[in-house]
């Protein structure tokens, strides 16, 4: 037997003997209760969907953060490798330039012996007359100029211990000049490849 108190609509007066108005009211109440239950279920589902969407968005944000971190790390690695390669290229270019200069200086050093022979021949008057030796001397000196090999050291120049090697000092005062040149000095471009061997004297 059903207990009247178990009927949620018992207090609404919608019993078996209720009239049409009471029955309609009871039906309306039941519909409202059903609608409320449906709305509650829909709200709960919406909250669940929102929570699930929030979890999904959080996972996407975490993945984006991880990918950005990896990208930043790879970018820094690329910058470091690029800088190391640029430094390597500069070192290689500098070493190549130095090797070329040393090679030219070595060749120039061998040519200077021939230049000294021509200077001695000129001092003895062997190059005064036009002839094969004079023509050779002119061509050889032009070659030195083309290679940017220039000589220095002449009588009367101020003595410079950085580029002049004194084998004798006949000066008596503080001011010193070159009194005689025993061997000319040479530069390759701006690089000193041989000092001049001189005798120091007083200014004339």
UniProtKB/TrEMBL annotation:
Its main location: cytoplasm. InterPro entries: GrpE, GrpE_CC, GrpE_head. GO terms for molecular function: adenyl-nucleotide exchange factor activity; protein homodimerization activity; protein-folding chaperone binding; unfolded protein binding. Residues 63-73 have a biased composition (Basic and acidic residues). It comes from the Bacteria. Pfam families: GrpE. Participates actively in the response to hyperosmotic and heat shock by preventing the aggregation of stress-denatured proteins, in association with DnaK and GrpE. It is the nucleotide exchange factor for DnaK and may function as a thermosensor. Unfolded proteins bind initially to DnaJ; upon interaction with the DnaJ-bound protein, DnaK hydrolyzes its bound ATP, resulting in the formation of a stable complex. GrpE releases ADP from DnaK; ATP binding to DnaK triggers the release of the substrate protein, thus completing the reaction cycle. This is Protein GrpE. It comes from Corynebacterium xerosis. The lineage of its organism: Bacteria, Bacillati, Actinomycetota, Actinomycetes, Mycobacteriales.
